[in-house]
Amino acid sequence: MDESKGAAMTDEPTVTRNAENSRYEIHLGDTLAGFAEYKERPGEMLFTHTEVDPAFQGKGLAPVLAAQALADTVASGATIVPYCPYIARYLKRNEVEGANIRWPQLPDDPAGSNAS
After folding, report:
1. Domain boundaries, the chain
2. Are 45 and 76 in contact (CB under 8 A)?
3. Taking Cα atoms as reference points, which of 111, 87, 74 lies closest to residue 37?
4. How much is the pLDDT for 110?
5. Average pLDDT, the chain
6. Which residue numbers delimit the N-acetyltransferase domain (predicted)?
7. The predicted structure's pLDDT at residue 13
8. Beta bridge partners of 28
């Protein structure tokens, strides 16, 4: 992380992996704006929940968070398993280069298999 940019970058979102809490976090400056929770399994990253704080909604942070979390997962060589509806929608709408995806079978999937 480049500390020399300091306060000038406080409005720029940064995404980090918080392995201790099993989630990717997006911050604006020092403020946590959202997160994408995951569970790790051998060779897989199961995304379970994504949330952006209501104070930060409408700023385009969720797709930034998803893109960077998924890119990091691809770089690690893990298969993406999108249980989180937001991550699943993101993957259906956006190309994630090099992604290996295992689509879970959800018994009560309200979106149905044809959701886009």
Report:
1. 3-93
2. yes
3. 87
4. 56
5. 89
6. 16-103
7. 97
8. 13, 31
The pLDDT of residue 9 is 44
Q: How many residues does the chain have?
A: 116
Whole-angstrom Cα distance, residue 13 to residue 32? 10
Residue type, position 21, single letter? N
Using CA atoms, how far apart are residues 64 and 41, in angstroms rounded to an integer?
24
Overall CATH class of domain 3-93? alpha beta
Q: Which helix (H) or strand (E) segment is 90 a member of?
A: helix 85-93
User: pLDDT (tens digit, 9 = 90+) per residue, 37-81?
Assistant: 999 999 999 999 999 999 999 999 999 999 999 999 999 999 999
Cβ-count burial of 88 within 10 angstroms (0-12 exposed, 13-18 middle, 19+ buried)? Answer: buried
Q: Rg of the Cα trace of the chain?
A: 15
Answer whether 43's CB lies under 8 Å from 78's CB: yes
